[in-house]
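Sorry to interrupt, but I need a hand with the structure work. Could you add the entry underneath, on a fresh line?
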Amino acid sequence: MAPSRDLMGAAEDLADQFLRVTKHYLPHLAHLCLISTFLEDGIRMWFQWNEQRDYINLSWGSGALLATLFVFINMCGQLAGCVLVLARKFVPYACFGLFGIIFMQTIAYSILWDLKFLMRNLALGGGLLLLLAESRSEGKSMFAGVPTMDDISPRQYMQLGGRLLLVLMFMTLLHFELHVFTIFQDIFGMALIILVAIGFKTKLAALTLVAWLFIINMIQNAFWDIPTYRPLHDFLKYDFFQTMSVIGGLLLVVALGPGGVSMDEHKKKW
């Protein structure tokens, strides 16, 4: 037990040192990663305007006018939200706008019936929830008058919800195949997922997940190796940036901490 505790302690010390060095840059990197999928999708809407309009028109029989309006709202909503988040201006409104974009796309592109994509969209929503929690000032509450229990604020419940939703991304990466490396990867990933969800050793677990997810993303979603004319290029590109957004959410977990609804917080009371 002693060697394992020493190893865990050394890992936590390394994580703390990393946070001390990057504390001024980490939130900005988290924001950039988090909005990357919206930024990429908004730009893609511009360059694939006709294709997106025709897809919506054919899928829903909405007519060219409504289909054009849908693409316009998607493009402007995403790009405007990204600018506001990066400028750190009206961030709550930007978050609610991006939540609306996720909801619209879930319905319009029939993501609701594709479990893998639905879970990833929910994970993306978890990242926005953490961004909303970060932006919420303790002094000026958006939820003034909302009762709290045990001195736990709505912000801390948002942090809990964000953590739980981020976990869904990793559920889509589990393979459950009878290969030694795959079994190890599933067990290792599941352990880290549980730690982040319950808020135990949260910063270390989240940092480890960031590294793991980044490596998997670079290997599995290498869209730059696929010719642009192939549909797989756009699919992998979409997947790549969506994964980067979840990485941004995890970096916010690292920067903000797990919040009051977590085992890390309760350990302080023991």
Residues 138-149 have pLDDT under 50 and may be disordered. The chain has eleven helices and no strands. The CA atoms of residues 130 and 159 lie 6 Å apart.
